[in-house]
Amino acid sequence: DKAKCIGCRYCTWNCPYGVPQFIPELGQISKCNMCKDLIEAGENPVCMDACPMRAIEWGDLDELKAKHGDSVSELPFLPASAVTKPALLIQAKNNALHNDFKGKEI
Question: Is 1-31 a CATH 3.30.70.20 domain?
Fold first, then answer.
Protein backbone atom coordinates (compact mmCIF):
# COMPACT_ATOMS: atom_id res chain seq x y z
CA ASP A 1 0.00 0.00 0.00
CA LYS A 2 1.85 3.08 -1.24
CA ALA A 3 -0.06 5.31 1.16
CA LYS A 4 1.36 3.36 4.11
CA CYS A 5 4.91 2.80 2.84
CA ILE A 6 7.58 4.65 4.83
CA GLY A 7 10.49 3.34 2.75
CA CYS A 8 11.98 1.19 5.51
CA ARG A 9 12.87 -1.56 2.98
CA TYR A 10 12.00 -4.44 5.31
CA CYS A 11 9.81 -5.95 2.60
CA THR A 12 12.72 -5.92 0.11
CA TRP A 13 14.90 -7.82 2.56
CA ASN A 14 12.22 -10.37 3.38
CA CYS A 15 10.50 -11.08 0.07
CA PRO A 16 11.69 -14.53 -1.07
CA TYR A 17 11.03 -13.57 -4.71
CA GLY A 18 12.88 -10.22 -4.77
CA VAL A 19 9.80 -8.44 -6.10
CA PRO A 20 9.63 -5.20 -4.07
CA GLN A 21 12.20 -2.66 -5.24
CA PHE A 22 13.27 0.56 -3.53
CA ILE A 23 12.78 3.63 -5.74
CA PRO A 24 15.23 6.26 -4.42
CA GLU A 25 13.49 9.15 -6.18
CA LEU A 26 10.26 8.32 -4.35
CA GLY A 27 11.82 7.09 -1.12
CA GLN A 28 9.33 4.23 -1.34
CA ILE A 29 8.98 0.66 -2.43
CA SER A 30 7.35 -0.32 -5.67
CA LYS A 31 6.64 -3.66 -7.25
CA CYS A 32 5.64 -4.99 -10.62
CA ASN A 33 2.11 -4.17 -11.79
CA MET A 34 2.56 -6.39 -14.88
CA CYS A 35 2.65 -3.23 -17.03
CA LYS A 36 -1.06 -2.78 -16.44
CA ASP A 37 -1.24 0.16 -18.84
CA LEU A 38 0.28 -1.90 -21.67
CA ILE A 39 -1.96 -4.91 -21.01
CA GLU A 40 -5.04 -2.66 -21.02
CA ALA A 41 -3.86 -1.40 -24.43
CA GLY A 42 -3.64 -5.00 -25.70
CA GLU A 43 0.15 -5.24 -25.50
CA ASN A 44 2.51 -7.55 -23.62
CA PRO A 45 4.35 -6.67 -20.41
CA VAL A 46 7.82 -5.26 -21.17
CA CYS A 47 9.64 -8.16 -19.49
CA MET A 48 7.97 -10.63 -21.84
CA ASP A 49 8.94 -8.77 -25.00
CA ALA A 50 12.42 -7.93 -23.69
CA CYS A 51 13.40 -11.48 -22.70
CA PRO A 52 15.95 -12.61 -25.32
CA MET A 53 15.18 -16.30 -24.72
CA ARG A 54 11.39 -15.80 -24.78
CA ALA A 55 11.29 -17.57 -21.39
CA ILE A 56 8.52 -15.40 -19.92
CA GLU A 57 4.84 -15.72 -20.70
CA TRP A 58 1.87 -14.13 -19.02
CA GLY A 59 -1.81 -14.84 -19.16
CA ASP A 60 -4.60 -16.74 -17.50
CA LEU A 61 -3.07 -19.35 -15.18
CA ASP A 62 -5.50 -22.08 -16.23
CA GLU A 63 -4.65 -21.50 -19.89
CA LEU A 64 -0.93 -21.51 -19.14
CA LYS A 65 -1.27 -24.73 -17.11
CA ALA A 66 -3.03 -26.36 -20.06
CA LYS A 67 -0.33 -25.14 -22.46
CA HIS A 68 2.58 -26.09 -20.19
CA GLY A 69 1.30 -29.20 -18.44
CA ASP A 70 4.69 -30.08 -16.94
CA SER A 71 5.01 -26.75 -15.11
CA VAL A 72 4.86 -26.42 -11.32
CA SER A 73 4.23 -23.65 -8.82
CA GLU A 74 6.04 -25.38 -5.96
CA LEU A 75 9.76 -26.09 -5.66
CA PRO A 76 11.51 -27.48 -2.56
CA PHE A 77 13.92 -24.53 -2.25
CA LEU A 78 11.24 -21.81 -2.54
CA PRO A 79 8.85 -20.77 0.22
CA ALA A 80 5.67 -22.84 0.31
CA SER A 81 3.22 -21.63 -2.32
CA ALA A 82 0.40 -22.23 0.18
CA VAL A 83 1.91 -19.36 2.19
CA THR A 84 3.03 -16.96 -0.55
CA LYS A 85 0.24 -17.75 -3.06
CA PRO A 86 2.23 -16.81 -6.18
CA ALA A 87 0.53 -16.56 -9.55
CA LEU A 88 3.51 -18.32 -11.08
CA LEU A 89 4.28 -21.41 -13.11
CA ILE A 90 7.83 -22.72 -13.49
CA GLN A 91 9.16 -25.20 -16.00
CA ALA A 92 11.79 -26.59 -13.68
CA LYS A 93 14.67 -28.91 -14.50
CA ASN A 94 14.29 -32.35 -12.94
CA ASN A 95 17.09 -31.69 -10.42
CA ALA A 96 15.25 -28.65 -9.04
CA LEU A 97 12.32 -30.86 -8.06
CA HIS A 98 14.39 -32.87 -5.56
CA ASN A 99 14.34 -31.94 -1.88
CA ASP A 100 18.15 -31.90 -1.65
CA PHE A 101 18.54 -29.38 -4.49
CA LYS A 102 19.99 -26.10 -3.23
CA GLY A 103 20.02 -24.08 -6.43
CA LYS A 104 23.56 -25.17 -7.27
CA GLU A 105 24.89 -25.20 -10.78
CA ILE A 106 24.42 -28.58 -12.38
Answer: yes
The full DSSP string for 54-76 is -----S-HHHHHHHTTT-BS--T
Predicted confidence at residue 106, as pLDDT, reads 46
Domain with CATH 3.30.70.20 in the chain: 1-31
Regions in the chain scoring below 70 on pLDDT: 102-106
Residue 40 · residue 61 · CB < 8 Å: no
Global pTM? Answer: 0.61
Distance (Å, whole) CA 68 – CA 25:
39
Query: CA 26 to CA 35: how far, in whole Å?
Result: 19
